[in-house]
Amino acid sequence: MATGTDSTTAGEPGGRTGPGGTASGGVRRGVNSPARAAIGAAHLRTDRWWLSPAATAAGLLAFVVYSTWRAFANADYYAAPYVSPFYSPCLAENCEPMKAGPNWPLFGDWWGLSPALIILVFPLGFRLTCYYYRKAYYRGFWASPPACAVAEPHTAYRGETRFPLILQNIHRYFFYAALPVALILTYDTVLAFRDEDYAWGHMGLGTVIMLVNIALIWLYTVSCHSCRHIIGGRLKHFSRHPVRYRLWGWVSRLNARHMELAWASLISVALADLYVYLLATGVFDDPRLF
After folding, report:
1. Residue 29: which residues within 8 A CB-CB, separation 6 or more?
2. Phi, psi at residue 147, to the nearest 5°?
3. What would the pLDDT profile of 61-105 be if each residue is shown by its tens digit?
4. Which residues touch 227 (CB under 8 Å, ≥6 apart)?
5. Distance between CA 143 and CA 47 in Å, rounded?
6. pLDDT per residue over 19-66, tens digit each?
7. Nearby residues of 225 by Cβ (< 8 Å), 6 or more positions away
8. E-state strands within 118-253
9. Other C-beta atoms lying within 10 Å of the C-beta of residue 178
10. CA distance linking residue 111 with residue 91, whole number of Å
11. CB distance 273 to 86 below 8 Å
């Protein structure tokens, strides 16, 4: 079914590409190039392939709307002893006072916006440049491509070689920035073993939620492709580095679940913030376990 074209056709590798994804001689490249099978249909899939990108787009959009509202709210993010992960660490003078909490007023009284906007750039940048999330929002929002074996509607493809997508290449540096944030959230979880009067040796439902959240955040962080590469990606002889090889094996197993961990940690961080918000607004009191 493939049309007969010579390998020197302008649309073939080595040919020059003009604006709009066409070769300089007017020959189209990609799925509509003369070198591809002459199939008139946009695709041959008969399943409901659109469900996955639609569900992905809906889930990400819901998180974007919720997190934007909470980040700009600048209120109801602390209910002793719990602090919302959206606002930790709190780096401005306008932060609510938290006894022994992550209050470090590096930004003075000139900062009048929500303190969440200072710190959220790091976990947000880490997730935006994450390999899985790139696939998710490329497909869900840009239809690039919308699904496997379904042609994208765009006439040209330049990959991540130009601004702004070339910034995806700094994912490793966002990974480095995400590590101290995860450590601080771990510290917040330890502080969650206090009661509302800051006495130690207590545990509430919020403590459990914080524990689950930080566990998922760490699993998502260390399952990152950059983490896997840093640990063992450059080694030429695993036999000479048995410890790093073992660590690389553990991270590789987690990496196989990176998509599930990405969604689980995204949901858990939103639920942890929502729980603190409900406590701070007096909707209910934190159930005490002991």
Report:
1. 11, 15, 17, 21, 22, 23
2. -165, 170
3. 999 999 999 999 999 999 999 999 999 999 999 999 999 989 899
4. 175, 221, 251
5. 17
6. 344 444 444 555 666 776 777 777 888 899 999 999 999 999 999 999
7. 131, 255, 258
8. none
9. 23
10. 10
11. yes
